[in-house]
Amino acid sequence: MKKLKKKFKKKSSLNELSNFVNFRFKKTYFVPDSVFKLLIKKIKSKMICARENHAVAMAFGGKLIDKKCLIMMQNSGLGLSIDSLIGTFDLYNEGCVIFLSNRGKLDWEEVQHKKWGVVTRPIIKSLNFKFYNFNNEGMLAVKKAYKYAFSKNKIVIVLFERGNIDE
Known about the structure:
Blueprint: H1 14-24, E1 27-30, H2 37-42, E2 46-48, H3 52-64, E3 69-74, H4 75-90, E4 96-101, H5 111-126, E5 130-133, H6 134-137, H7 139-152, E6 155-160
Parallel strand pairs: 1-2, 1-3, 3-4, 4-6, 5-6
């Protein structure tokens, strides 16, 4: 992997993040993403999903039986999962935390990610989903997202930039 040219404000240890996930969430549903590759290895209860909308559906099923589940995907998967998020968690006022990698922000990233790097934040804002930037707040963003999602029963996104966690 090429060196990162961007300096990040917050970088968190993989162990701190995985411990939080393992302690707070019953299950993690994810679509593979290189940003989360090492984190996924450290998560104990997880299930790989073929598509992001499948991850949303599985997490919603878990929430209906009173389990707090985490969804992990890259920003391009947000487009595919919007209808599922609106038709489940949003419609039924259920809390949900999504770890979203913000691909396409760095000069050397693949061309197919570039547009998503530009439109991710405006899309999240247009949906009125609460989001926290891991780049600015580190683990505090994750803790705030968890608390807000499950106390207010809202969809909350934690946005991760490449390099925020040990990759």
